[in-house]
Amino acid sequence: MKLEDIRRDYTLAGLSREQMADDPMTQFEDWFKQALAAELTADPTAMSLATVDADGQPSQRIVLLKNYDDQGFVFYTNLQSHKAQDIAGNNKVSLHFAWTPLERQIIVYGEAEKLSVAEATRYFLSRPRESQIAAWTSQQSQKVGSRKLLEQAFEQMKHKFQQGDIPLPSFWGGYRVRPTKVEFWQGRGSRLHDRLMYSQAAEGWQLDRLQP
Fold it and tell me: Which residues form the Pyridoxine 5'-phosphate oxidase dimerisation C-terminal domain (predicted)?
């Protein structure tokens, strides 16, 4: 079979303005709960984070959503990683949730801001102990000669932190992506998909239908 012959129609549901909440975070919560209930994947919080580096080169990677509220979407990372360097130079980012079994996508456009040390510490201390040790071990995005060297460094850190609580590394933290636009996409038949976009307005949010 040729790749161009692989296709399917989207027929599960439609999406109307009348169905939509007044603000995107309330609408996100509704869809997110439905995605959790559907047990779509082992990583229901997985989202693609897109950034742009100093040369204008975009890049994407999967990160895990760790919180969301009226202020935006939260994830954590090494603050010396490529993504963090990109954000330091250009904090405009995009998030993408793909829930294909539900024939749905959500695209978030916004600005990333660093979380406070207190917020990062609260989350870091809630992580499994070996995940905390891994955060100390990995110089994220830097080259390493072999897997064995990485594992040796991990064992050294385990020995270092045998007793007591593991402190938050100074190079580890989180970001909150404050949305400026959020698109909700529902697949429809004949590729006439439903796309509804929330955009920040002077007061509240404006909701518009986009052509597919």
Answer: 172-212
Mind telling me the catalytic residues? Answer: 191
pTM: 0.93
Q: Which tens digit of pLDDT belongs to each residue from 47-63?
A: 999 999 999 999 999 99
| Domain 7-127+172-209 fold | Pnp Oxidase; Chain A (2.30.110)
Q: Is 49 annotated as a binding residue?
A: no
> Quick one: which of 43, 44, 48, 85 has its CA closest to 63?
48
Residue 194 has pLDDT above 80, yes or no: yes
- CB distance 208 to 200 below 8 Å: no
- Give me the chain's average pLDDT, please: 95
Q: What CA–CA distance (Å, rounded) separates 40 from 22?
A: 26
The backbone torsions φ and ψ at residue 106, rounded to the nearest 5 degrees and listed phi first, read: -130, 130
Q: Record the tokens describing residue 68, joined without a space.
A: 């969301």
